[in-house]
Design goal:
The protein has 396 residues and is an alpha/beta fold. Helix content is 41%, strand content 16%. The chain is built from 17 helices and twelve strands. The protein has a six-stranded mixed beta sheet with strand order 3-2-1-4-6-5, with helices on both faces. Strands 9-8-7-10-12-11 form a six-stranded mixed beta sheet, with helices on both faces. α6 crosses α17 and α12 packs across α13. The radius of gyration is 21 Å and the shape is globular.
Amino acid sequence: MKVLVANLGSTSLKWRLFEFSNRQERMLHKGGFERVTDYPKAIEDCLAQLRDAGHIASEKDLSAVGFKTVLALGVNGCVRLDEKTVRAMEACNSIAPAHNPPYISGVRLFAQRMPKTPLVGLFETAFYQWAPEAAMRYAVPQAWHAAGVRRWGFHGASHKFIAERSAELLRREDVAQRARRLYVDGGSSAVRQPDLRVISCHLGGSSSISGILNGVAIGNSLGMSPQSGLPHNNRVGDLDAFALPFLMRTAGLTLDEAERLLCKESGLKGLSGGANDIRDIQTQAAQGNTNAQLALDVFVHHIRHWIGAYFLQLNGADALVFTAGIGENRAELRETICANLDQLGLVLDREQNLATRAQEAVISAPNSRVQVMVIPANEELVVAREVKRFLENTQS
């Protein structure tokens, strides 16, 4: 079975091709295009690369195309991306304006190009289906909640991979197995040993923190939309609900103007005065730019806030994990985030931390009660596994 996982952006197409056979899994190919202006051509070029590499003769050799879909009204889990589901995604465009439209457009283009190939989406909200209700509710009228105003949580594929891989590294195969089978068994299956408590930090252009107990999420810093939680590269993060009507009234902003500012001019970009790449912000801060330094300080403050929240909810932690672009590559930020936590049993090995970049490693000191880890993200593998399981269940 060969599953192509397509990651769609507004101007990008990235992919990985996985093969599953005889209980083995391997990635056959990965690639991508940036600054895409012609998506049909990009899809053709993707298929051409797979043919040229000898992995497929035609799209008929693909069992399915999997997508890391974000949000849909009334839809969750791993599902067939038929037109009904795509319309449910469209209903959430105003909640996920940077994510849903490019995915919807891309899914429809793939459907046109290969109408007989199953298109399957694993929604980023799926990992939080078993989180405690109190962690996912807002204090709003019941009718609002029924309409979808609640915490959904995102980056589910990334945090699910961390749940699996951290358990393996901590030699807790019972928890790893539970995490791997979560979408089959749900969150109710028991583990044989004491609780395994993991705090997962997905830090990148978009960032979030999850608390994970025995392979199951207890919550996520992202709320109803991908604009919430930590400050993102150009999206606001958490904001008092009354800030928006206040500025609309006092500054004369229209709703569309306010939405654009919250989604494209806020976050690290708004704080730093224009830079939204963490590398540029760190360089500017080192050169004495106080706004850039403030952006870093605010980012770290919010990360530590959510780590602390889950440390309390979990009654401690066995592992703190960094993943995604910033989490895997920015040792200086990891050191700042972990500073002065020795009273919580967390001590970083400074030399090991500085030496670790985009590779799997333990970066805590030998005397640290909490294992601090770097685990490279592998969201595509999670999507491919769930697509394979979906196909097996629907074909049986």
